[in-house]
Structures are given as C-alpha cells and as structure tokens.
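comment on this one:
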Amino acid sequence: MIIWISSYPKSGNTWVRAFLSTYLDSTDGKFNFGLLDKIGEFPDHNILNKFMDSKDFYNLSEVSKHWIKVQELINSNKELTFLKTHSSLCNINGNKFTNSDNTLAFIHIVRDPRNIVLSMANHFGITQEESYKIISDKMYIIYPKKNNQPIPSTLVSSWNNHYLSWKNSNSISKIVIKYEDLIKNTKGTFEKIINFLSEHAKIKYDEEKIVNSIDVTQFNNLKNNEEKYGFNMGQKNKFFYLGKKNDWKNLLDPGIGDKINLQFKSEMNELGYI
C-alpha cells in the first residue's frame, strides 16, 4: 500500500523525505542524495509508459485516466511504498487521484505561503509577483521534464485549494505537518511522524535512529551536500535556499504579502500564520 508524502512545492517535502529515507533505508546512518530515490515520485513516467504514449504526458485529462491503474500496479508487489507528490488530491473528469484501496495513509506538509513565494521565486528565477500568481492559480499545472523528456503533468492548484484538498480528506488516515513546526520543534515533529507510521504501517520507533536521522539531514548538511555533489531539481539557483531563516518579514514585498494575507486569510488563520 502507498503512503504519500504530499506538499505544495517548496514546502519541505525534500527535508521530510531526506529524514525518512535515512531513518528507513540508510545502512550506515549517513545521508546521501541517492537515498531520496528510495521514495519515488508520482506520477511515475516509467510506469505510466506502460499505459499511455509519452507524447500525451502533458495532457492532464489523459494522465488522470491512469492514476489508479498505475497505483494498482505499484501495489501489486504487496509492499509498503512511500511516494512523493505535489499534486492536489483532485478529481478530474471523474478520475480520482487516489483512493482508499490503494492508499494506506498520507503525510501532508504545509508551509506559510509568504515563504513559499520567496522560495519559489528563487527556485525558478522569477519575480515575487510571478511567484504569487503561481500560488494563486487554481489551475496551476506542472509540466516537468527530465533529461529533456516530458514527465506526466501534475495539477497542483492554488496554495489554499491544495492544502484543503488533502486536509479535508476523511477516508484515508493522515497527519498534517507544518514546516514551521519542523523548524521550531524538529525532534518532536519527526517523532510525531514516526509514531504515526508506527501506528499505521508498523514501522518501529527508534529514538536513537530519529536523533541521528535528524542530525545528518540538518539544513546545513543538506546545503553542504548540494555544494559538494550537486542537486538538480530543475531549479535556476541553489535548491536549499531559505532554510531555517523562513524570512518573509524581511524579504517579501509588503504589497505581495498583503495580497497573500487577503486571499488566503481563512486558511492562514486556521494554521496560525496570521
């Protein structure tokens, strides 16, 4: 069965995956970027190729027809599978992104949209205004490439629609984690994740491994690894950018901050961001 690690882009998904892949799969207690490959991405173009021609990967309606088929194939090995996604928990033309037959649980990470705007602007090499327009777009779709080859498109949607789609799902066990809590209470928040996985996936709680996995995946260690070995996720600048600074108060254009606060007021209030 699948356990999703879901988030809006630039919300800490890579940090959580670095921690989990180290906790679950590191044989020497150390982290390297190769461990991230233990947690696949969805939609997976290698598997989707079995169901459709790659020339249609940018046709979201066509891709959505195969979401469940791909997950059924992934689950055919009867093993626990962690998957990363930036997709909203959506339904396109009656095609659900996932269902309780294929999903055991999900970990959803949410982050203050004011910091997402900054991080996204750095990642894509765009202006803060352009970044704001992305997180406001209900039809924000990612059309990624890998080695100049198309990868299946993903409906991300706006920041609030994305958050609500996962948060309001009641048919699947879930835990919602704030990026800010990962910063303020790193050990306690990662312990919550492992306790959740212990309850729903029989993953053993090991405090020593938790402490070590946190230590080797600290932001500065990830940043240093990027400096030494590189880490290309299609970004224009360094991937590990703001990190623990989370510094929208000093870096975000006040006018854009005001627009974000107004547009996402309800959800930001709920999450304690305003």
Remarks:
- The domain at 2-271 is CATH 3.40.50.300 (Rossmann fold).
- The chain is about 45% helix and 15% strand.
- The chain has one domain: 2-271.
- The chain has a mean pLDDT of 91.
